[in-house]
Amino acid sequence: MPNLNFAKVQMKESCGLFGIFGDVEAVQKAYFGLHSLQHRGQESAGIASSDGEFLQCYKGMGTVRRVFRSSSGIVEKLSNPIAIGHVRYSTTGGTKAANSQPFLAEYSGGQVAIAHNGNLTNASLIRDEFEAYGSIFKSTSDTEIIIHLLAKPTHVRKPDPLAHVLSHLQGAYCLLFLFADRIEAARDPYGIRPLAIGQTEKGSYVVASETCAFDAIGVRFVREVEPGEIVTLDKTGLSSRFFAQPGAVTPAHCIFEHVYFAKQNSTIFGENVHELRKKFGRRLAIEHPADADVVIPVPDSGTSAAIGYAEQSKIPFDMGMVRSHYIGRTFISPDQKLRELEVNLKLQVVNVVVGGKRVVVVDDSIVRGTTTKGKIRALRQAGAKEIHMRVSCPPIRFPCYYGVDFPTKEELLANNRTLPQIKEFLEVDSIGYMPLEGLLGCANLPADHYCTACWTGRYRIPVDTAGRKFALERYPMRTFDESE
Ligand code: SF4
Asked: Distance between CA atoms of 319 and 52, rounded to whole angstroms?
């Protein structure tokens, strides 16, 4: 059997979820909620809804706006009082309609639509087992195996089939299941990705990856879905059960959500993202002070940390770069050349802020380093006298198998490079990364409640084999449809 694991055809599942039960404007709210979560994925978007008996689904490639504007009146056609939605993280290739979500399926238990944020580390092994018995898969997404697990006759007959299915999964997952009469929301026992519960003024319950989705539609934050919990939204309101014993494992919340991924106005893992990023910046100023005239952020995710750095260092804060918001995130773009072009378009230097100055540049993280290098060059061209790079997380040295799409280990700037080599590569006058203890010391929860694998290589949840991250991409098969 050919095993063609194309570097350009990767499985990437860091996404945004939204669900709402019992609201006459459920689909409209899902649409706006997904807009708020757009930073979590721009590759595809979709909404599935139920009228209480039957499910329908619409999805496509691109941003929420693009998908739902491309079909006139689709939000109205989908309009039902129960809905879930999904935005998917952009990939470096292999962008295909077959992997867009929610997945809608019919099995002996009825209809179900599934939306997933995270990455299953045992997906390949489970898929192998199903394929050995003749199952056919339509996508290369790890999420599809969950449908097969649900449909397995021995699982359907269990007293709580969903809880039973979840106990087979390994890795990072927040999942929304839309059945005809209810939504079930589940979070993995380690609580790697965030998932929050909210309530509308009229009492309808809502779930979303981040609370920023609530702000957009006037929903009150209630609480987070607990690790190992299944929350059911149905006509009786909200009920809860656990498929994994609470407290059986120490949580492993992804602290990179706080560093980069989540939106500043969200509250995740019990803390506001903006406030914690400012704390990171203050700590960074203590760890790595600089003699400089101005502190500038790499907007947007570096802005909060730069404010904190400026507050602590008493060096004036200013906007030395401005960002165009009309292009997607850069480290998720298709190839290096396009990424560089995007960076130039996306971040432009404000010459009067940096010209003739000693500049502290604060960024949240450095992944490949090539985009950072481009920004540094642009600052030099604008007349910056000195450039002191400060990064509000430690050097990223390992890939993430839990749902954030870092490039391969070899492509990471800090892989096998010393700090002096990184400084030389970036062409900066000094460089300072936040130490891991500093990062963890800023956060509210105990240090061992966070995943730090991309900095330490310590993977708390087993990965079936590290080299199999793209193992579901087995064939150079490509289909086209009208959405591509
Ligand atoms: Fe988050 Fe890094 Fe852990 Fe991935 S490896 S879950 S990005 S902390």
From this structure: 51
Residue nearest atom 2 in ligand 1 by C-alpha distance? 454
Q: What is the pLDDT of residues 115-133, one digit of tens each?
A: 999 999 999 899 999 999 9
Q: Which residue minimizes the CA distance to atom 3 of ligand 1?
A: 451
How sure is the predictor about 69, in pLDDT bands with cuts at 50, 70 and 90?
confident
Domain with CATH 3.40.50.2020 in the chain: 271-445
Q: Is 402 in the pocket of ligand 1 (CB under 6 A)?
A: yes
Here the tokens at position 125 are 């092994």
Nearest to 174 by CA among 93, 108, 86: 86
CATH of 7-249, one of 3.30.56.70, 3.60.20.10, 2.40.400.10, 3.30.40.10: 3.60.20.10
Fold of 271-445: Rossmann fold (3.40.50)
For residue 401, the ligand 1 atom closest to its alpha carbon is 4
Q: Closest residue (by CA) to atom 6 of ligand 1? A: 254
With a 6 Å cutoff on the Cβ, whether 255 touches ligand 1 is yes
CA 192 to ligand 1 centroid distance, Å:
8
Q: Which residue has the tokens 């292999």?
A: 94
Query: How many other CB atoms are there within 10 angstroms of residue 349's CB atom?
Result: 21
Domain with CATH 3.60.20.10 in the chain: 7-249
Residue 347 has what pLDDT? 85
Q: Which of 400, 401, 440 to mutate to test the pocket of ligand 1 (most atoms within 8 A of CB)?
A: 400
Both tokens assigned to 424? 């030389």
The dihedral over CA atoms of 331, 334, 337, 342, expressed in degrees to the nearest 10, equals -60
**CA 97–ligand 1 middle distance (angstroms):** 27
Nearest by Cα to 191 from 164, 222, 161, 229: 229
**Residue of the nearest CA to atom 1 in ligand 1?**
254
Alpha carbon of 80 to ligand 1 centroid (Å): 36
Mean pLDDT of the chain, nearest integer: 90
Q: What sign has the CA pseudo-torsion 298, 300, 302, 306?
A: positive
Q: Is 453 exposed, middle or buried (0-12, 13-18, 19+ CB in 10 A)?
A: buried
| Ligand 1 touching residue 401 (CB < 6 A) | no
pLDDT score, position 476 = 53
